[in-house]
């Protein structure tokens, strides 16, 4: 774990250095927009997704992971900016500081998110040979788009609105999670959270093979994808648990908001103890997917307990 902690610190520094280099003044870019983009993108964070890109690339033999890593973090940050808006999750704190719309107003926050989203694909297109760039753009668009992250957010909002309507109909008191199933919850989070985590790993493999004569082997992609699926579900369960048990100073965002809004969550559906057992099971399954990769996947394997034991 000491080796992993040092690795994560070094890679976070590297990610932030590359992100800062991308977001620099340029002709036609309004200073106010650049400030809002940098405010959210460079705010202190775990940088889990870009680090997954780097780890996957290293597990596949190296290459240049940084365009893909930066693109993933730009997509992730755009999604946080938009998720925090009053029309969605209505949050006022993110990564230990006021959310983008609290700092800059809703209009500029929306535009900052839009700019990060589109710039992510520019970074991929300019960062790799045409074949790899096209494959990376397709991978990221699928994960972040209507059938991926955005679709998962739509389902999350629909559930929340449906719950709110039921509460209004029956009483003024919050209702238990009397609807929804574990399968529905997992499908929601496989898209809302898991799709981008899985894409990060696949992008790392694509980056590693950018200058080779053939794309990543299918069995390698399948191992990384299975690992990402399980890691993403474990990550989301821990996220739900932190909303119940976490501390706002540690997590860097408001806690207790999911239950207050009637969201479908693992603790609300299964209870805290069963949710934690489920996260640990997904962690074990994630490790099983890595076995064919052998020692190349040691850091990815070490990341599992880090995700399960995180406090923010």
Task: Explain how this protein is built.
The chain has 312 residues and is mainly alpha-helical. The protein has one domain: Orthogonal Bundle (Farnesyl Diphosphate Synthase). It has 16 helices and 2 strands. It has helices at residues 2-22, 31-41, 48-59, 66-83, 100-104, 106-127, 130-144, 149-170, 182-192, 194-208, 218-245, 248-251, 257-260, 266-270, 272-290, 298-309, and strands at residues 93-94, 97-98. A two-stranded antiparallel ribbon has the order 1-2. Helix 4 (66-83) packs antiparallel against helix 10 (194-208) and helix 8 crosses helix 9. The longest helix is centred in the last third of the chain and has 28 residues, at 218-245. The radius of gyration is 19 Å and the shape is globular.
Write a compact overview of the structure shown.
With 312 residues, the protein is mainly alpha-helical.
